Amino acid sequence: MTEQTAPYGSGAAPAGATAAPRRRVRIPHLQAMKDRGETWAMLTSYDMYTAQIFDAAGIPVLLVGDSAANNVYGHATSLPVTVDELLPLVRAVSGSVSSSLVLADLPFGSYQESPEQAFRTAARFMKEAGAHAVKLEGGLEMVPQVEKLTRNGIPVMAHIGFTPQSEHQLGGYRVQGRGEAADDLVEQATALEAAGAFGIVLEMVPAEAAHRITEAVTIPTVGIGAGPHCDAQVLVWQDMMGLRTGRMPRFVKQYADLATTMTEAAQAFAADVASGSFPADEHSF
Ligand code: KIV
Hints:
This protein is an alpha/beta fold. The chain has helices spanning 27-36, 48-56, 68-71, 83-94, 115-129, 143-150, 167-170, 181-195, 207-216, 237-240, 258-275, and strands at 40-44, 61-64, 101-105, 133-135, 156-161, 199-203, 221-224, 232-235. The chain is built from eleven helices and eight strands. Strand 1, helix 2 (48-56) and strand 2 (61-64) form a beta-alpha-beta unit. Bound molecules: 3-methyl-2-oxobutanoic acid.
């Protein structure tokens, strides 16, 4: 007798996936949504199942963030994660989507040194892991990197405001761009657009500053803790699904409570094993 399902998961389409193939999201589609005034969503993803689920749910962009440092590898900051640790996660996500655009974060230390270093790292994410675009953090100092990548076929999303890779330089998790400092962010955003960036993440920026930036650039802005006026919004999936517990940044809205669901399921399994009610006849051969 043959097995009806693969023993450890098969990479098959998840429940709720639509049968009809959907069009691959490409950068001009993201731009067209801004131009039409349609706000879109981006989520992080670091593995096959979340990639399949978010792709089937119609999330246009999946970010394999360097936040994998915190959310996959258990570090306190995003700094320690390496290119070699992120590449397999990007490969898992890009191999699991049919529609979503897969954006790979360039880890700390893998692009700041020079445009050439940035190109070498970004090319690895595109060639070895199937990324469709890359993201890097920084303002005016990143203009040469963005120019180098975009002139050589690699789409770049920029990331300004609070940039977690610089948290020690910035003195911790702090809102950036309050008061007159908003002018600097507008200058950075317009320079990054001119350099060729196809979008800009605005992290922990006052809503009014993010509004100004969103109006000052023609490319989409993607907010995280940047208020309602951005062209798109991004959240880390473990935060918005309630897999992560404890103190949450103010900008996170929780749409599920996976930590409780999983704790209860684990406890129910352990209780069934202890009582002998699992496995039952239907789980046995
Ligand atoms: O790595 C990440 O998850 C990010 C988002 C917070 C935008 O950069």
